[in-house]
Design a protein that fits this description.
globular; three-stranded mixed β-sheet; 5 strands; two-stranded antiparallel ribbon; about 220 residues; 2 domains; alpha+beta
């Protein structure tokens, strides 16, 4: 297949491009950021912004950690909520794998106000909903009935909450969301693992946290 090369100078968005059978070279300020060759209608991740449309660590990992906190402190729901929320940032500092999103972006300067209700968006929502639901289910399965279901759900939800707040920030750039997003981007690891190591390491981490909590409370 013969590819047509195009050069985009100072594009408004460099995180994803819809192309088919074309090679795009992205240039900004006279500096080449990256080149991508795509043969299918799909998002292309180019150069320095390849991580821009990835989510945070798998949500179910955050949910299990939040559930473990609830298991340890079932009589202190406020502490569970705060500790679960804070745990998200601590875990995000650990090198991990982020699954890609096709339409939704949670990068530093993301703007999701122009999202269209197309197949890519629905696939993103299905992926996120499946991930979060699995997290809730696993947390409850692991830690109920030693802690009330609602406290476990609270811890799991608090553990996942910072990621949805990134999306809210992309729609409504106001305080305290601006400061929270700045902190989230700052603390988030810049080291990305490949998906094979990433999935195994996150599963092992979640299992270790759950096992530690279960053993510690025996």
């Amino acid at each position: 297949m013969v590819s047509e090369r195009k050069t985009l100078v100072q594009p408004a968005f460099t995180d994803r491009l819809l192309v088919k059978g074309r090679e795009f070279t992205i240039v900004s300020g006279g500096r080449t950021l990256g080149t991508a060759l795509c043969f299918w209608v799909r998002p292309c991740f180019c150069g320095a912004d390849a991580r821009a449309v990835r989510s945070g660590m798998i949500l179910s990992t955050h949910a299990i950690v939040g559930g473990a906190i609830a298991y340890m402190l079932p009589s202190h729901p406020i502490v569970v909520a705060v500790a679960g929320f804070v745990s998200h940032f601590v875990i995000d500092a650990i090198p991990h794998w982020d699954y890609p999103l096709q339409a939704i972006s949670v990068r530093k300067n993301a703007d999701n106000r122009l999202l269209k209700a197309d197949r890519r968006l629905w696939m993103d929502l299905l992926t996120i909903a499946t991930d979060a639901s699995a997290g809730f289910a696993l947390a409850i399965l692991l830690f109920y009935p030693s802690a009330p279901i609602w406290v476990i759900a609270l811890g799991a939800a608090a553990g996942m909450l910072p990621d949805p707040l990134q999306f809210v920030h992309s729609l409504y750039k106001r305080e305290p969301l601006v400061t929270l997003q700045r902190f989230h981007v700052w603390i988030h690891t810049k080291r990305k693992l490949n998906w094979q190591i990433g999935i195994v390491s996150q599963a092992a981490f979640a299992a270790l946290v759950a096992a530690t909590a279960l053993v510690a409370k025996q």
